[in-house]
Every structure is written in C-alpha cells, then in structure tokens.
C-alpha cells in the first residue's frame, strides 16, 4: 500500500482519528454535568441523560427514572441554547470524523491527499473544533 503522506501526515491522520473518536464519545456520553436531584445522583449531556425526574400522574408525584437514555424528542431537550449546543457539537464531531477517516484513507491510497487537500482538511478540522 503506497501513501502520499509524509511521516508528519501519518501522525496527523492518526491523531485526527483519536481526537475525532474522543469528541464523538464525549458527545454521546451523558456525563457532562453531574449532580443530585431528589437525593439521587443525576447526570446529563447534550444528547443523553441519566436518572431524570418524571411526573407520575397515577400517584400524583414526581419519581426518578434511574436509567440512561436519549431525550424523547428534539423538543424535550431543556432549552433552546442546549438544542443549539447539541446541533453544533454534533456537526463538529461529524466534520472531525469525516476529515479523520479521509486522512486514514490517505495512509493507504497513493495520491489521495495533496498539499491543497491537506490544507482544506486542516481548515475543516479547525471549523469542526
């Protein structure tokens, strides 16, 4: 397998992939904010939440659901700012992953990454970050 990347390009490709993977894992994990509510530990992120309160109409009280899951809908995300954060972070992770996978393919395919493509990919990474 031939590569058009220099040693620095190969290091860039693998570091790009590691950073993109870490960003995606951070986006999907619900441990951005930790705290307690109704004497139970709770945590949530932009995309998921763990241990959240729900109104039980049959018993006329609020109970804690002690499990992790996504928000039921996009509108169930607590605020407009949080929704914007979810979209922007998701788009950034997508861009980082796109560049990282392209760079990894450049390690295996000859003449895939030129100087111009490398600069554009760096700009996309900057935008994704």
Descriptive account of the structure:
This protein is an alpha+beta fold and 129 residues long. The chain has one domain. The protein is built from three helices and four strands. The protein has helices at 7-28, 80-108, 115-128; strands at 33-37, 40-44, 48-56, 61-70. It has a four-stranded antiparallel sheet with strand order 1-2-3-4, with no helix packed on it. The longest helix has 29 residues, at 80-108. The protein is elongated and about 65 Å long. The two termini are 31 Å apart. The mean pLDDT is 83. Residues 1-21 form the signal peptide. It comes from Chaetops frenatus. This is LHPL6 protein. The chain crosses the membrane at residues 87-109.
Structure keywords:
single chain, 129 residues, alpha+beta, four-stranded antiparallel beta sheet, 4 strands, 50% helix, 22% strand, elongated, transmembrane
Question: Quick gist of this model?
Answer:
InterPro entries: LHFPL. It is built from three helices and four strands; from the N terminus they run αββββαα.
